[in-house]
């Protein structure tokens, strides 16, 4: 598919790709059910990107050459013997923090659970203390190399949460860091407000709920109006001992009133009716879902609400993985995220896809769909990102292999030769 021929100078041509993996071919906003196992591929493909960063042509080498006989290109990349896939979209990360938790990894290996560490003052509480004490500039200096490592590994869009402040001042500081980073890195940031990540020490869940609704969200609205921050989603950690279903609903509804998409944590360690709540509130996405019920899965079909699964978390915490196959069999779109944070230090979506295949029994096409078009859908961005189609941004990854599956198969170090970001 391509636009009409014209003698323009285009920003980029990638030609002679053994496989040009477009993922979608019909502008699908997501893929669910059996369609999640189907990916569109052009053999011996060429892709052209215009001056605005959007794709103007996708097709075989012969088709594109015939349609653009007089075109010139600022960059002309010969991908002979290589494959091209869409840039990866990481649907869930917590990348703004200081104070690593490597010491907790030893505790986990010795048998401590996530909630054991949380109750002992570690976990989120440890990171909150250090992040509160760090300046905005210090947090930005820590964030930028993390984002660059993600980009080097093929991630071209990433969801980034606040959540290590738990009070208005630090939460806004984290969102300001993400806003500033957008101008300093090519990777595309979708910011999420997560003031309800945990209950602050010395507070009750009801008090923390009131603080989010009555103090943090008004501060967010004010900072957003000033152009200091740019959040698009609101998140809550719906979990036993953190925020219950009623508190989560109150916070999410307050966020929705100020224009934020609902994209929240749920059913990770305990069943909390997260899927049911997501269906009731028409949520954009829910993450984790290790303990989701059959009723929750059916409720998520309505919009549908995207299931953002995080295999790194199940792996590191030794949890039973979420029921990925049930979601697919029920036609709920499955997306993937790295859950990058001090508890799950993973920056590579290729590793996430590999773990999803091994631990959650996804096929490789299902995993690629989950890390591209479906993760873009979980952020409300699948109209412009997540597949290589005319009119969408030409964010892509060139892999030095004869088959696209190598980006998943080659564990930990796939042969990525180029990452291209508009």
What is this entry, summarized?
The protein is an alpha/beta fold. Helices cover 36% and strands 23% of the residues.
Description:
With 422 residues, the chain is of the alpha/beta class. The chain is built from 16 helices and 15 strands. It has helices at 61-67, 102-109, 114-119, 124-133, 136-152, 168-181, 205-225, 245-257, 274-281, 294-300, 311-317, 324-329, 349-360, 364-370, 373-378, 406-409; strands at residues 9-23, 40-49, 55-60, 72-78, 83-86, 88-90, 155-161, 188-196, 231-238, 261-266, 285-288, 306-309, 334-336, 396-399, 416-420. β2 and β3 (55-60) form a beta hairpin. α9 (274-281) runs parallel beside α10 (294-300). The protein is globular, with a radius of gyration of 21 Å.
């Amino acid at each position: 598919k391509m636009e009409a021929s014209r003698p323009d100078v285009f920003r980029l041509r990638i030609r002679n790709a053994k496989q040009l993996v477009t993922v979608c071919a019909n502008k699908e906003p997501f893929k669910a059910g059996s369609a999640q196992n189907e990916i569109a591929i052009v053999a011996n493909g060429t892709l052209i990107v215009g001056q605005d960063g959007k794709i103007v042509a996708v097709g075989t080498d012969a088709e594109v050459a015939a349609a653009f006989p007089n075109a010139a290109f600022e960059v002309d990349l010969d991908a002979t013997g290589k494959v091209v896939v869409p840039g990866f979209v990481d649907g869930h990360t917590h990348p703004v923090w200081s104070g690593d938790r490597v010491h907790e990894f030893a505790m986990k290996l010795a048998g401590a659970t996530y909630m054991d560490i949380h109750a002992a003052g570690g976990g989120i509480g440890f990171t909150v203390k250090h992040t509160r004490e760090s300046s905005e500039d210090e947090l930005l200096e820590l964030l930028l190399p993390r984002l660059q490592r993600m980009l080097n590994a093929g991630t071209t869009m990433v969801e980034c949460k606040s959540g290590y402040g738990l009070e208005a001042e630090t939460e806004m500081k984290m969102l300001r860091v993400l806003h500033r980073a957008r101008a300093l890195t090519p990777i595309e940031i979708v910011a999420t407000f997560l003031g309800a990540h945990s209950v602050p020490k010395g507070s009750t869940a009801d008090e923390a709920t009131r603080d989010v609704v009555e103090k943090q969200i008004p501060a967010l609205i004010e900072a957003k109006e000033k152009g200091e921050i740019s959040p698009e989603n609101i998140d809550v950690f719906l979990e036993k001992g953190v925020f219950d279903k009623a508190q989560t609903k109150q916070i999410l509804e307050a966020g929705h009133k100020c224009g934020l998409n609902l994209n929240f944590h749920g059913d990770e360690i305990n069943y909390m009716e997260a899927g049911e709540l997501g269906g009731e509130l028409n949520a954009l996405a829910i993450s984790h879902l290790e303990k989701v019920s059959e009723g929750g899965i059916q409720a998520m079909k309505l919009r549908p609400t995207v299931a953002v699964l995080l295999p790194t978390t199940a792996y590191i915490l030794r949890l039973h993985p979420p029921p990925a196959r049930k979601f697919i069999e029920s036609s709920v779109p499955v997306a993937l995220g790295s859950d990058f944070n001090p508890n799950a230090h993973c920056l590579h979506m290729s590793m996430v896809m590999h773990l999803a295949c091994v631990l959650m029994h996804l096929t490789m096409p299902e995993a690629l769909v989950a890390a591209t078009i479906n993760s873009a859908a979980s952020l409300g961005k699948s109209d412009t990102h997540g597949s290589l189609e005319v009119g969408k941004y030409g964010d892509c990854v060139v892999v030095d292999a004869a088959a696209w599956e190598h980006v998943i198969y080659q564990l930990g170090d796939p042969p990525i030769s180029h990452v291209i970001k508009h």
